[in-house]
Design brief:
- The chain has about 260 residues and is α/β, with parallel strands linked by helices.
- The chain has six helices and ten strands.
- The strands form two sheets. An eight-stranded mixed beta sheet has the order 1-10-9-2-3-5-4-8.
- α4 crosses α5.
- The radius of gyration is 19 Å and the shape is globular.
- The N terminus is likely disordered.
Length: about 260
C-alpha cells in the first residue's frame, strides 16, 4: 500500500483502487503524485428528447451541460490536473463530437490554452473499426476517428517523457529516435452495458500507455467507469487511481 499525502492534510489513498466520488474530491486530496492522466471524459454530446429523466449514456451523469458551463467545468478539471501531476507529467485526453456540437473540441482546446497552464504537444487520431454513422444527414460524413489530445504544462513541452527508443547517434552526438505515428487503430470500446453505453477501449489504453507510461509510474483516470483504464494498467504493471461517481459501475467492473 502507498500512502499519498497532501501539503494541507494527510489523506490515505491506496493505489489500484476506484474511489466512488466526484473526481474533484479525489484530486483535492492529492498533490503531485500522478505521472499520467489517461481519460475519456463525457463529451457533452448526448442531447436527448426524453426530458430530465432521460440520462442518456450513463446511469448517473447527465451528458448535456450548457456549453459555457461545460467549458468552464473543463477548465476547472485541467487546473486540478495541474495540482496532481508530477513534474513532466502528461494528460492523454480522448475527445470527440457529435452532430449537435462539431465545433466543441476546438472550443475546448482554445479554453484550455487560454485559461490553464497546459499546452497541446501532440494530437493523436484514434481510428476505430466501425464508424459513427449519420444516415439521416445529407451533408455529414461518418465519423471513424476521434482525437486524443496530448498535453503537458507549458514550461514542460520540451522535457516530458515518452518511451521512444534511440535508433542511432550521429558523430556529433545527436540522437535519433524511432518513428511512432500519431495514428492509432484500436477497437471502438469494451462493449455497452445498461450502466454505461460509452465504455472506453482497453486496446487504445494499452497503446497509449505503451508510449507514455514507464515502469513505476502512477496513472489517474477521473472518469473510470467500469474500469477500462485500470485493466490496461494492470496489464502493464502500472499503479493507478480512479474516480467514478457511479457505485453500480464500479461494482459491475469488479464482477465483470
Amino acid at each position: 500500500m502507498k500512502i499519498l499525502k497532501t501539503y494541507q492534510r494527510i489523506t490515505f489513498y491506496m493505489v489500484n483502487e476506484i474511489y466512488n466520488e466526484d473526481c474533484f474530491i479525489t484530486m483535492s486530496n492529492m498533490n503531485k503524485i500522478i505521472d499520467v492522466v489517461l481519460t475519456s471524459p463525457p463529451y457533452n454530446m448526448t442531447k436527448r428528447k426524453g426530458g430530465p429523466s432521460d440520462k442518456g449514456r450513463y446511469d448517473k451523469y447527465i451528458d448535456w451541460k450548457d456549453e459555457q458551463e461545460y467549458l468552464g467545468w473543463s477548465v476547472n478539471l485541467f487546473n486540478n490536473f495541474n495540482k496532481i501531476l508530477k513534474r513532466n507529467g502528461v494528460v492523454l485526453y480522448n475527445f470527440s463530437y457529435s452532430i449537435e456540437n462539431p465545433s466543441l473540441p476546438y472550443k475546448l482546446i482554445s479554453y484550455i490554452l487560454q485559461f490553464t497552464d497546459f499546452q497541446v504537444v501532440d494530437t493523436i487520431f484514434w481510428k476505430k473499426p466501425k464508424s459513427m454513422s449519420h444516415p439521416a444527414s445529407y451533408n455529414r460524413l461518418n465519423r471513424i476517428c476521434e482525437f486524443v489530445f496530448v498535453l503537458s504544462r507549458k514550461k514542460e513541452t520540451k522535457t516530458f517523457k515518452t518511451n521512444k527508443q534511440i535508433t542511432k547517434t550521429s558523430t556529433k552526438g545527436q540522437n535519433y529516435y524511432e518513428v511512432i505515428d500519431n495514428f492509432i487503430e484500436a477497437k471502438n470500446n469494451d462493449g455497452s452495458n445498461p450502466l454505461n453505453k460509452a465504455t472506453y477501449s482497453t486496446e487504445l489504453c494499452d497503446k497509449l500507455l505503451s508510449i507514455y507510461a514507464q515502469d513505476g509510474m502512477t496513472v489517474y483516470d477521473p472518469f473510470m467507469g467500469i474500469g477500462t483504464t485500470s485493466l490496461s494498467c494492470k496489464k502493464r504493471g502500472l499503479d493507478w487511481i480512479g474516480s467514478e461517481i457511479s457505485k453500480e459501475q464500479i461494482e459491475y467492473g469488479n464482477t465483470d
